[in-house]
Every structure is written in structure tokens, then in C-alpha cells.
Write a structure and sequence with these properties.
Blueprint (H helix, E strand, L loop, with lengths): L2 E7 L7 H12 L4 E5 L18 H11 L3 E6 L8 H11 L12 E6 L7 H13 L11 E2 L15 H23 L1
Parallel strand pairs: 1-2, 1-3, 3-4, 4-5
Bound molecules: ligand FNR.
The site of ligand FNR has 15 residues, from helix 1.
Length: 184
């Protein structure tokens, strides 16, 4: 059975390495998964005072994520954590608590950086938030993609076959994780 996956990219940058990796995963991902990037750029900043009459950007985002079977986060690291725009999206989706759109959705995390550390800090801060939102995040394979500036040509195409293969295997494992999580 085909499963739908919301892809959340934690960078708003036009030439984002994370967005490129997200597109590459979508390209090599298994047929069993139908990916769709759900944009976070226009989300109003979370403000609890707005909850009684939430902005359309929040309700649209919540509706889109809720409709998917699973979620894939592809995120950079800012100051050893996830970018504020991604945290904002997570917070928006999490409220009100009884309508937490992330609840129970199988998830996976890929972190991407031009630096050497693979954005480990962002990857794991994101996982920490997911624990409190009852999200089963795929434990392995982990995906810390470092030195991202060396993986693409000038047009933005991925030139590194090992990364492509890593993403292909990651997609397969995620498809299996989704089935296991939805079954258990
Ligand atoms: C960064 N960057 C960065 N990189 C990293 O590996 N660890 C870090 O803690 C940080 N911190 C950080 C803070 C801020 C405010 C910025 C703007 C950048 C560098 C970051 O990885 C780089 O800009 C990436 O290119 C961002 O990902 P995208 O936009 O290419 O997807």
C-alpha cells in the first residue's frame, strides 16, 4: 500500500543543501512512499494568544500534515540545534494538545550541513521534541550528511553516488519503519 509522507525542510534558503537532499531522496525513494514537501516559510510565529482564532497559515499547515501518514524532517543545524523556523513549525503543529498533528505519525530525520559534524545537534534536538509529541522516530539508519558543499555540482545536482545510495537505502528503511509503526 502506498503511504503519504509530509517532507518538512528546515531551511528557507533558495540554494539550500537540505532542500536539494530532500529532492534527491524523493527522486530515489521507494514507490511505496508518496512524498510531498509541506512548506513552512509562511507560517505565522507561534503565539498562544492566537489559538482561539488561529491564522490561516497555521490551520492550512495542520490540515496538510494531518492528512499524511508519516513525516520526514530534513534539517540544517543552527547553533547546534534546529533552525527557529523548523521549531516554529513543530510548535504550530503541536497545538492544541488534543489536536497535535504529529501524534503517532512515523517519522525520520536527515540532517545536512556543509560542516564536518553532520548537524548531529539539530538531528537530536529534533528527536527530543518528537519524544514529547508521541512521534515514533526511526532510530536507524541515522543520516548525518556532512561536507554538503562537496556533494553537488554548480547546477545543484548531486554528484556523489554514495550519498545517493545512502538516501535510497534510507527511503527503503523508512518505508519499512512506517509499516511497522502503523501496525504496532
Ligand atoms: C549555521 N551553520 C551551522 N552549521 C553547522 O554545522 N552547525 C551549526 O551549529 C551551525 N550554525 C549556524 C547558525 C546560523 C544562524 C547559520 C545561518 C548557519 C551553517 C549552516 O550549516 C549552513 O548555513 C547551511 O548551508 C544551512 O543549510 P541549508 O540552508 O544549506 O540547507
Amino acid at each position: 500500500m502506498s503511504r503519504t509522507v509530509a517532507v518538512i525542510v528546515g531551511s528557507l534558503r533558495k540554494d539550500s543543501f537540505n532542500r536539494r537532499i530532500a529532492h534527491e531522496l524523493i527522486a530515489v525513494g521507494p514507490d511505496a512512499l508518496a512524498f510531498e514537501i509541506v512548506e513552512i516559510r509562511d507560517l505565522a510565529l507561534f503565539d498562544q494568544d492566537l489559538e482561539p482564532t488561529p491564522p490561516a497559515s497555521w490551520t492550512d499547515f495542520r490540515t496538510k500534515v494531518r492528512a499524511k501518514d508519516a513525516v520526514l524532517f530534513v534539517t540544517p543545524e543552527y547553533n547546534r540545534s534546529m533552525p527557529g523556523v523548523l521549531k516554529n513549525a513543530i510548535d504550530v503543529g503541536s497545538r492544541p494538545p488534543k489536536e497535535n498533528v504529529w501524534n503517532g505519525k512515523p517519522a525520520a530525520v536527515i540532517s545536512v550541513t556543509p560542516g564536518p559534524t553532520g548537524a548531529f545537534g539539530a538531528n537530536h534536538h529534533l528527536r527530543q521534541s518528537m519524544v514529547s509529541l508521541s512521534v515514533p522516530v526511526m532510530p536507524t539508519p541515522e543520516a548525518y550528511i556532512g561536507n554538503a558543499g562537496k556533494l553537488f555540482d554548480e547546477s545543484g545536482a548531486l554528484t556523489d553516488d554514495r550519498t545517493r545510495e545512502q538516501l535510497r537505502k534510507f527511503g527503503q528503511a523508512f518505508a519499512a519503519w512506517i509499516e511497522k509503526s502503523l501496525r504496532d
